[in-house]
Please model this.
Amino acid sequence: MDSLNPENPPAVVESPPKRRVWRFWGTALWGVFAFAAMFVGQITVVGYVVLRKGAGISFEEAIRAAASDGTTIAMSVIMGLPAVVAALWLAIRFTATPFGDYLALRWTSWKNFLIGVIGLVSVLVAWELLSDLIGHESSPGFMSDVVKSAHGGGGLWLLMFAFCVAAPISEEFFARGFLYRGWSETPLGPVGATILSSLAWTSLHLQYQWYFFAEVFTLGLWFGYLRYRSGSIWLTIVLHGLNNLGAVLQTIWLVRHG
Model:
């Protein structure tokens, strides 16, 4: 019997290393680090433009000029993408989980995509109806100013790429990818992780008024549910991009016909 023969010991089956994720505080602290990296990447562009435009005008005037320039904002948003990806890669590097697995970089079924589109349209229509009911503007004034500036400076296509591609990827990697993954594996569970990551995502939109904070938070809850349902953030990235594309096109229409 080979199992009793010292010259033929039984094969030892090694269990694969247990994959782990950052828990609540680890996720929160690395999330702050990723947010800071995104901010540095974005503010670097603004700082460069301010230094270039600062000659002959005050520092405050240069800041206002950079903050209202559509091309500058587009480049700022784009530069935030590699910064946040690098920060998250570093955070995930300390775990035993592959980067793509950690952030749920996998596609899902067309059924989930259809459900996501229907839900997204429903949320947007509900907010549009509410805006009409209470007489509130349906598009943030910030968006109108940025689109006007980008259109006048020839940077409209760059702005659309920034808002519809770069921003969805960086924000979804951050919120529904990293934050949700870590917090969902704590006592918060998927529900708590969805709410908390949606709040964190909403905090990235400080340029909006309180009314639009509520709309962004609602969208965050829907995207969080889709993240839980599908196990994919490619789905939320695509829907996030479609949402932003609709917002940009709506703003362009209002600017031209308003």
Q: What stands out?
A: The chain has one domain: 22-257.
